[in-house]
């Protein structure tokens, strides 16, 4: 899909306005830890999908989305006032879980990498607490050369 530069600019302005209104102007206690992640404006500029990410569990996300949808008229009014265009996009709010999915994928990849990490060829694993640079045989040679009595 080819998106015009105008649609992209309008989407960015809508994102800034909705973020500001949600974060600083809504007095609803259900709204917290919210991020407007993306705004997709239709090519005809008649609608815009506002994607919102909520930090927390699924219940918190539903409560927050209910509060945002309840305040949709206020947010829409602020967007309309600041955009000042002849055709104003109608906002549709949806919950965006892509951030949670990417964090979970990253966590799983890190876990898999740490479980399957093997030492490089030819290197032996060093027990915890032992210095990697010295081998046990070298320690004995150094102690004998320095004249220390190990008994």
By helix and strand content, what is the structural category? Answer: alpha+beta
Q: List the total number of helices.
A: 5
Proportion of residues in extended strands: 5-15%
Strand order of the largest sheet: 1-2-3
Uncertain spans: none
Number of strands: 3
Mean pLDDT: 81
What is the string of SSEs from the N terminus onward?
Answer: HEEHHEHH
Q: Determine and state the CATH class of one domain.
A: Alpha Beta
Using only C-alpha atoms, the radius of gyration works out to 29 Å
Largest sheet: 3 strands, mixed
CATH fold node name of one domain: GMP Synthetase, Chain A, domain 3
- Distance N terminus to C terminus? 80 Å
| Multimerization status | single chain
CATH superfamily of one domain: K homology (KH) domain
Q: Write down the overall geometry.
A: globular
Helical percent range?
40-55%
**CATH architectural category of one domain:** 2-Layer Sandwich
């Amino acid at each position: 899909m080819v998106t015009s530069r105008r649609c992209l600019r309008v989407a960015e302005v809508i994102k800034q306005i909705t973020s500001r209104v949600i974060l600083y102007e809504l007095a609803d206690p259900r709204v917290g830890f919210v991020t407007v992640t993306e705004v997709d404006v239709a090519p005809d500029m008649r609608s815009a999908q506002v994607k919102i990410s909520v930090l927390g569990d699924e219940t918190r996300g539903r409560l927050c989305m209910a509060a945002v949808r309840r305040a949709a008229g206020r947010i829409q009014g602020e967007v309309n006032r600041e955009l000042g265009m002849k055709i104003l996009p109608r906002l549709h709010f949806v919950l965006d879980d892509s951030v949670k999915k990417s964090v979970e994928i990253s966590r799983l990849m890190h876990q898999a990498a740490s479980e399957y990490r093997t030492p490089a060829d030819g290197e032996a694993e060093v027990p915890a607490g032992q210095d990697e640079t010295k081998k046990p045989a070298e320690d004995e040679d150094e102690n004998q050369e320095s004249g220390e009595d190990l008994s």
